Amino acid sequence: MLDDKPAGEEATTRRDALDVARLGLTLGAGDGAVPLLADVTLRVGRGETVGLVGESGSGKSLTARAALGMVPRGARATGRVTVSGVDVLAAGRRALRDLRRTRASMVFQDPRASINPVRRVGDYLTEGLRARGTPAGAAAERARELLGQVGIADPAGAMRRFPHQFSGGMLQRVMIAGALSTEPELLLADEPTTALDVTTQAEVVALLKEMQRARGTGMLFVTHDLDLAAAICDRVYVMYAGRIVEEAPGRALFTAPAHPYTRALLEASPSAHGDRVAIKAVAGRPRALAESPSGCSFRDRCPLADDRCAEAVPAHRTHRASAVACLRPELVSP
Amino acid sequence: MTLTIPALRARRPGFRRRPLGVRFAAAFLVLVAATGLLAPVLAPHSPDTTSLLNSLAPPGTAGHLLGTDSAGRDVLSRLMYGARFSLIAPLGVVLLAGVAGTAIGLLAARAGGWVDAVLSRGMDIVFSFPSLLLAMLVVAVFGPGLTAPVCALAVSYTPFVGRVVRNVAIQEGARPYMEGYRVMGFGEAWVTLRHLLPNIAPVLVAQSALSFGYALVDLASLSYLGLGVRPPDADWGSMISQAQSAILQGSPWSALAPGLVVLLTVVSVNVLGGHLGGSIGGKKEGT
Amino acid sequence: MTARALAAWLGKRALGAVLTIVLASVLIYGALRLVPGDPVLALTAGRRLTPDQIEAVRHRYGLDQGFVRGYLSWAGDALRLDLGTSLNYQTGVSTLISGRLGVSGLLIAYSAVLAVLFGSVVALVSAVRGGLADRAATVLASVTTATPPFVAAIVLLSVFSVGLGWFPATGAGTGLADRLWHLTLPAVAMATATFGVLARVGNAAFAEELRREHVEVARSRGVGGAAVVRRHVVRNALAPLLTVIGLLVAGLFVATAIVETAFGLDGVGSLLVSSVSRRDFPVVQGVGLVAVVLFVAVNTLTDLALPFIDPRVTVGGLGR
Fold first, then answer.
1. Is C30 part of the contact surface with chain B (CB cutoff 8 Å)?
2. Residues 6 or more apart from C273 whose CB is under 8 A from it?
3. What fold is seen in the domain A10-103+184-331?
4. Contact C288 B133 (CB under 8 A)
5. Residue B134 belongs to what domain range?
6. Is 0.90 exceeded by the ipTM?
7. How far is CA B145 from CA B76, B255, C111, in A?
């Protein structure tokens, strides 16, 4: 399901908002080379909401940023990343700029840090439009309209205010409006609620979902919160140590996780049981790709691991609704 | 001050591990200080022996490595003797300003309240009075010479040290361990001297090095303007001043040599001061 | 910011500036009283004056009154721009200063423009390009920072005036073009150290802004490289740089003393130097007072401009 689709590849490329095929990312070269991502394959169809879940350091943000051609300085990328038919990794500076201005936008984690504090909010909203040549008046009109849509009262007044005059939740709405201003086909949301108060998180998620649905935008929702992803996403990819370890429809993932890591994540979450005493942390600490063991990256933290897990990186295979990179998914959810 | 030295030494890496620029800077300063100190032994000629037949000899002339000035005096020997005034006077400024600045800064930080407000405002005002202007003012009052300008510059640089000491002392004083000592019943003065001062040492060293560079330039400027050292004494500034007419005659060397020495000395002091401030303390100036 | 808070804040800053100037003027006046022996002897040093003239000087400086009354009468005259009479030129000090203000003002403006222009460009380019450009700029900045104006002056004189003959060695010239040509070397000599400080501080400020997340976000939105630097890096570094520039430009006032002497320019700075060495006290006091007022004015103005440049600097919580 994930790996081999030689015949359908052309078709999916044209149809999908985002198509990542065997993406690898390595920092540096030679002996000092540090691998960051390996063999990451995922796709986001038009109008589809796809979750990308993992702990910090798993490479989920790197993957999302690679979709915009934002690769860390000094890093080398392999594989292919296609956004609405544009080959991102092969694109030149101009093509990349055009892609960012028209086809793909990103909502970042911390709106306070992501919006220039010395420029007015209106300036932030129109910047993307102005960059692609929209006249100032039309861009401002469009920005006011969008501010209203994301639920900001008095859009005209808000345009003239500075970021520090907004609350975190309101500012995240501003950033969402800014990301949608260019009518992108792909919306990348990189932990869009992590920096917000608990009370505003739900509102921002609902807003994102609503905007995405109304516009038919494809959305890649990056989060460390598996429950949240399972609840709002059509499909969810689970990432561990720079690799995708499981892909499943949101509901199926929640009820029948196929990878031991996914299951551990679910069990670690308080809402799964509603009983705080039952919280189990995932044993051990999260690994980055560079420091993970040979074979299956998760095997040193996995209760089911044996010698076979060390032999090679497990290939993805279908188990129930999931595509999972584990040798014994039947032991996880029979 | 002696209290601070063991603390510094404990954290000091070997000389060889320092960056190349820092090593050059330190070596150059030692060289200049040593030649100044040992000038009577090392100098090839007397700095005051004139020889009108041998004036404005270019560098490399036999017996005169750096040539001679318009009065035929050996430039190298004059540079060596000049180092004495050029280095000792700013050293005096730094010592006076360091002691006064530390005392005022600590007093302001520990006393707080209106004492702090008055002292801080006072330091701001002194800080906003250009140092060279103050030095010229006292020269107008007391006549040319170095003593009065050294005192004036010490006053001028006191806030440079005092404001930073105050800020660091307030930061350090707010740490739990300081409160611990107070709870244990140690006197305020004892806690300040025994425990606060060693923590302030790194910024003190860095600020002192910077003030030394500034004071050296200020004093050399005064001498250049004919308001500093009085002949027959000479420092690098007055050497440049005396050699300036020779530039127009096409013999710039006797002016450029002391100019280059001033430049290299200030660069070295800045490099060393920046390095000490960065590597020992890692604390930024709080102004 | 409310108009009320703004007014209160403006009042506070202005009061602080006035307080500084008052205390500085007490110092400038009081210096005369510190003179060992009879201050009149210092005021008249070496000059032959009739007893009537001595009495006039004594009265003019309030030396026949107490310190406070003497100061008040002197300060009152100064407020009316009457800075006394030069003992050396027998001319009003205000006239002496205003006649030379043109040359000094142009020199200060010229060198400020040079230092700010080249300093910011070097800072920006080295911060954006990084690598070799950054290292070269660091070396350049640390050498120029440590170059006192008189050292810069003799180097420039040796190379460009005597060696190459491109610029005149002395004099201020007549007519604007000729004057600028004459003032080029002095302005460069004065600007050298200022340039170095600005290149270093500016580089740090720009580099810090370049690392900000919103810069990366702007790039992720397809904003072009030049626009990102202009709108998000330069714009954001403006406020911290302005404070530094204010201090540096104010520092140029005193540097005129050295550079005007080195290049034989007849300006306020060289007037101060010759008056100090001749102990022409009224002139020294007058020039000192003017310099302090200008110094404080420039620093206060840059402080006042900050909240209008950087919206994060709120009037109430403005720190130094």
1. no
2. B136, B225, B226, B227, C257, C260, C261
3. Rossmann fold (3.40.50)
4. yes
5. 67-285
6. no
7. 24, 22, 31
In chain A, which residues have their Cβ closer than 8 Å to the Cβ of C213? 108, 110, 113-114
Chain C partners within 8 Å of A105 (Cβ)? 221
Report which of C149, C142, C137, C266 is spatially closest to residue C206, judged by C-alpha positions. C137
CATH number where B134 lies: 1.10.3720.10
Q: Where are the beta strands (DSSP E) in B111-251?
A: none
Cα(first)–Cα(last) distance of chain A, in Å?
20
Asked if C310 contacts C239 with a C-beta cutoff of 8 angstroms, the reply is yes
Query: Given CB atoms, is C295 within the 8 Å cutoff of chain B?
Result: yes
- C/B Cβ contact: 3+ pairs below 8 Å: yes
- Closest by CA position to C140, among listed C154, C119, C156: C119
| Closest residue to C295, CB basis, from B128, B143, B250 | B128
Domain boundaries in chain A?
10-103+184-331
Identity at A7, one-letter amino acid code:
A
Alpha carbon distance B99, B105 (integer Å): 10
Question: Would you say residue B24 lies in a domain?
Answer: no
Q: Best mutation site among A127, A183, A187 for testing chain C: the one with the most C CBs within 10 Å?
A: A127
Are C280 and C85 in contact by the 8 Å Cβ rule? The answer is: no
What does the alpha-carbon distance between residue A109 and residue A116 come to, in Å, rounded to a whole number?
14
Q: State the DSSP string of chain C.
A: --HHHHHHHHHHHHHHHHHHHHHHHHHHHHHHHHSSS-HHHHHTTT----HHHHHHHHHHTTTTS-HHHHHHHHHHHHHTT---B-TTT-SBHHHHHHHHHHHHHHHHHHHHHHHHHHHHHHHHHHHHH-HHHHHHHHHHHHHHHT--HHHHHHHHIIIIIIIS--S-SS---SSHHHHHHHHHHHHHHHHHHHHHHHHHHHHHHHHHHHTSHHHHHHHHTT--HHHHIIIIIIHHHHHHHHHHHHHHHHHHHHHHHHHHHHTT--SHHHHHHHHHHTT-HHHHHHHHHHHHHHHHHHHHHHHHHHHHH-TTS-STT---
Neighbours of C228 (CB within 10 A): 22
Question: How many domains does chain B fold into?
Answer: 1
pLDDT by 10s per residue, chain B, length 287: 333 333 344 444 555 667 888 888 888 888 888 888 877 777 677 777 777 767 767 776 767 677 777 776 777 878 888 888 888 889 999 999 999 999 999 889 888 889 998 998 888 888 878 889 889 888 888 888 888 899 999 999 999 899 988 988 888 877 777 777 777 777 777 777 777 777 788 888 888 888 898 999 999 899 898 888 887 777 888 888 888 877 777 777 878 888 888 899 999 988 888 887 765 433 333 33
**CB of C262 less than 8 A from some CB of B:** yes
Identify residue A8 by its one-letter amino acid code.
G
Identify the residue whose tokens are 């209160």.
C8
Q: Which residues pair with A126 in a beta bridge?
A: none
Residues paired with residue A187 on neighbouring β-strands, in sequence order: A105, A219
What are the structural domains of chain C? 102-281+298-309 (1.10.3720.10)
Pairwise CA distance, residues A89 & A68, whole Å: 9
Distance, C-alpha C130 to centroid of its chain = 32
Tens-binned pLDDT, residue by residue, of chain C (320 aa): 567 777 888 888 888 889 888 988 888 888 877 776 677 766 666 666 777 777 777 777 777 777 888 888 888 888 888 888 787 787 888 888 988 898 899 999 999 999 999 999 999 999 988 888 889 998 899 899 889 999 999 888 888 877 787 877 777 777 778 788 888 899 999 999 999 999 999 999 999 898 888 898 998 888 888 888 988 999 889 888 988 898 888 888 889 999 999 888 888 999 999 988 888 888 888 999 998 898 888 888 888 888 788 777 654 444 33
pLDDT at B9: 41
